[in-house]
What we know:
By secondary structure, the protein is mainly β.
Amino acid sequence: MEAPRDYLSGKVTSFASYIDRFFGGDRHYQESNQSVLQLDLTRTAGFNGDRKFDLAARLNLRLPVTEGRLHLLIETDPEKNITAEPTPGQTVLRNQVVAPGSVGLAARYETAVANVWHFSTDAGLKFPIPVRPFVRTRGSYSAPMGEWRLTATQSMYWFNTLGVGETSELDLERFISEPVLFRATSTATWLNDKQNFDLRQDLSIYHTLNDRTALLYQASVIGVSNPAYAVTDYVVLLLYRYRMHREWLFFELSPQLHFPQVMKYQPSPALSMRLEALFDESR
Length: 283
């Protein structure tokens, strides 16, 4: 039984890695030992959006002389990258192109065993002046569970704007068929200054149509723990991602339906559009 299990586990791992790379996912950015550059231009209309273009960029530069253990990071608004953002287009938008509010420059030390565990520690400075330091550490572990793969991720960080915080994330993935992957993601983020857990559960299906096009179907429940446990939003969405040019230019279109607590859980539609340039050594 071990040979079929190992084969299936390998299929889940390789296909999930392909999905994360194609979608420019946070796991690919954080755990790839290649250099990765990601540029995003996003616009959202509808719920939680006021017709703004939002600019973002981040660079993870591998330093070859250190055998990949040291990286140089450059990120816009680094406190926004403390965890993955499972639902696209959740920034608050205005009617103009908005430049990043800050830029972070950091050094990263990492160790890893491919597709099993990954550990990294970042120390950096956030600009403009007055310059402020920040630190982050992140660890993840993956293990096969029959036809499933489990990935547990723990992050801890300190920013002057957020204080001390931590994010715990648990992924369960299952290979449904050759072009389809199911992923259940449970996320809890705690900030000391707020004394509150932000909670999130995502159920996602990634469907690869061809080498240029993929779809994401996702249902999410978002909540808080303080002052009492409550659901703040339900979200269902469809995300269409298309590779426009060669291996690096992508376009996303995501119609969404929110059921927010602030609107007494009445349906509130939204539409997110994103143009992304994504570069790594294999593109």
